[in-house]
Amino acid sequence: MSKPSPVLKLWNTLSRQPGGKWLFSQAISRKAPYFGTVRPRFTQVEWGRTELVASKRRAVHNHIGTFHAIAICNMAEAAMGIAAEVTLPASHRWLPKSMTVRYLKKAETDLRAVATIAPETVYGATGFELPVNVDVFDTRGEKVFDAVITIWVTAKKT
After folding, report:
1. pTM higher than 0.85 for the full model?
2. Which of 80, 95, 98 is nearest to 127 (CA)?
3. Per residue in 104-120, pLDDT tens?
4. CB count, 10 Å around CB of 50?
5. Which of 50, 51, 59, 150 shows a CA-CA span of 20 to 30 A to 29?
């Protein structure tokens, strides 16, 4: 593992402070405004894994009063994005390439998204696809959604 990313450094600094996780979440939503539509609250950020929660509120409802499918996708992408930022070495960059999702049951409560990246990933000079798994759970701990978001990883141009 290379030196911690700036995003991980920010998390490590802020998350220890009162209100720091909230401030970190606000900063991420400011940097990537669309993520802010679900008001993500990051609860865990570490190499290879990120967790966030989002409240079920009217702004994320669909026509039947459950969490809208695309709002859940937005949560998944926010979790994946931070997982990628803190896991990939500073020498590499990433872009989302594809997203395969499964809606497993109605999302009737607040939700928790967990993104994971395989720790054995080898980062070379050539570009490659890297799958990031994201599972979303309701407050009962039941999985309501899962996704594989494939990102394209390349070495940064020097």
Report:
1. yes
2. 95
3. 999 999 999 999 998 77
4. 30
5. 150
